[in-house]
Amino acid sequence: MNIKNIIIGVTLLLTSAVLYGAALISASVYSLVLTRDGGEGWDRRYGVFGTALIEVGTLPLSLAVLAGVIGLTVIYTSFRKK
Q1: For 28-50, what is each residue's pLDDT tens digit?
Q2: Structural domain boundaries enclosing 21
Q3: Helix-, strand-, coil-residue percentages of the chain, each rounded to 5
Q4: Number of structural domains, the chain?
């Protein structure tokens, strides 16, 4: 068990959580703009929040998931090593 790898893995997990939360919060704030009178409007297929998520971008969500998976992998491999 290597403490350095565990710290790196936990840091990646925390970064993932912050990035994911920030993307969801920004999409929810933007969804208010979409529904306002004179707003930009939203796509009926995806709904208000889905349209806001697409407009904010899927890159932050993808990076958050990637960082989370890498963090879990680093933690798992540090526990598997003897």
Answers
A1: 999 988 888 777 788 889 989 99
A2: 3-80
A3: 80, 0, 20
A4: 1
